[in-house]
Amino acid sequence: MSYIIETMRNLVMQMAFFNLDWKNGVMIVIACALLYLAIAKEFEPLLLCPIAFGMLLVNIYPDIMMTVEESTNGVGGLLHYFYLLDEWAILPSLIFMGVGAMTDFGPLIANPKSFLLGAAAQFGIFAAYFGAIALGFNDKAAAAVSIIGGADGPTSIFLAGKLGQTALMGPIAVAAYSYMSLVPIIQPPIMKLLTTEKERAIKMEQLRPVSKLERILFPIVVTIVVCLILPTTAPLVGMLMLGNLFRESGVVRQLQETASNALMYIVVIILGTSVGATTSAAAFLNWSTIKIVVLGLAAFIFGTAAGVLFGKIMCIATKGKVNPLIGSAGVSAVPMAARVSQKVGAESDPTNFLLMHAMGPNVAGVIGTAVAAGTFMAVFGVF
User: Fold this and answer.
1) With bands split at pLDDT 50, 70 and 90, how would you rate the model's confidence at 200?
2) Helix axes 355-379, 212-229, angle to 10 degrees
3) Residue 38 and residue 164: Cα distance in Å, rounded?
4) 310, 335, 319: which is closest to 108 by C-alpha?
5) What are phi and psi of 201, to 5 degrees?
6) DSSP output for 189-213
7) Is pLDDT at 370 greater than 80 in this prediction?
8) SS3 state at 277
9) How distant, in Å, are the alpha carbons of 332, 348, 374 from that of 144?
């Protein structure tokens, strides 16, 4: 009888109810709220769903992220091994290859001035860097936090790992992906505030056709130029351009399909759940996280505003041939930011079609954020 009682007592004591505190309960509620946004509201569900579920798992069963050193049998938790692929920059780089395989760089090639709009939108990153320094973050932590302004989750994870800011990786990644999913909510008020009805209704000339040779040469030339200037960008820019070369060459269709479909989705599952699993109550519920969330939002707002304002300058310089709205697509949220530019423009004139024009700055923003990350790594001597 005593054996049965002892066995039952052990089973009961193994329940999570006896091992968690109220902070874990708060994180479980947050995870459920993110799942609601992903499923019911369809806010970037491919990213938000695994992140939220990883958050749910680690706050119910913390040992799922146990390191080898912490374990008693020399075996770490399942998501710990997934997370190592984030720290080693493997998963973010593979994500970039998938993005390159899915993305048409034609609008950027047809209108190289889009690079300027993509560069302008990176202002939010550097504004957030100095803001983070002012709030007490050290220089490397400030750099890792500031990349959120590019609305680029993989680059945020990549830079945090490279700069040794793994303790901040969870909050940084969750903030970055959350703002990516909230692009349709955050950007339109800023865009409307900084533009007039007349500017939003500007119709742009159709982009010129881009030849196959240009499409093939573009990823090769960009890789050579960017990586010679900033070799630290090679893991991101190199994989982005490799994926695009798969797409445009036309001779490796199987590789392009694998990179943009099966491999991409496998990586998203592993990256999302492991990043979500870094948001344990102890790591997430603190003042540093609040600062990161606020700084990320401020950076994203500044980046969007800078892109739109530079778009206004280009509008004046071209005597009304550039719609300033496409400047907001200079952040890296591909293709969501470009779709928002199209949506806001169509509200002023339903016959206005800005999507392809906005894809130029949008793609430039992806490259620009990777360059910004490489610049920080070069400054701090990290390779």
Assistant:
1) very high
2) 20
3) 30
4) 335
5) -90, 0
6) HHHHHHS-HHHHTPPPPPPPP--HH
7) yes
8) coil
9) 16, 38, 11
